[in-house]
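## retry 2 of 3
previous attempt timed out at serialization; input unchanged, resubmitting
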Amino acid sequence: MPEAVTRDRTIRLPVPATAHRSAGRQQDWTIESGAFQATGRTERAAADTLTTTMTSFLTLYQRPAVQVFRGHTAIVSLEPSPDDTPMWSEHVVRPGGSTSHSWFGAESLGEALARTRYNLARASTDWRDDGSVHQAVAFLDRRPQPPSGFGAGDLARYAAWQRAAKAAIDAGVVDWHGWAGEHAKDFTVPAPGAGTWPESSTAAA
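## retry succeeded, writing output
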């Protein structure tokens, strides 16, 4: 019986594109295909750049994903950026109807979603309320892959920093930001029950 086989290989896709160059000397070539375009000193150079751009995009592409937390809804999708490098788009609709839209780089959909969940948790957490912090931490990945700084342990550490910062501001500390960083461990939010917080993913890395 033949054994299962898994291996990397390259496929070729005949993608239609339009090439054009303005009249005159020393004009660059531009090649466009759908939402993608690339320029180059020669038609071949522009085509090679466009091929690289589209390959990078298709390698990363996944269907848009939706994340919902505490009435905040985020749609995460891969889009070409203005310089045609693949970027993740995060479109958030807040409970009151206001929206925000941002772009960021990530190596995979999983990493992009970890960042989005972290953003939703930070935007909706009452740092003074242990229960609110517990709920937000439970929403996040305990060990996001790759370690990204957007895991449950990272939010628990940030909650401690928030409480330290508030204490410093209330006490009139001028450099409250630096003071909070130095004393955050003294303001660690108690973990639920007798549990412990996950390790920070950046510290683990």
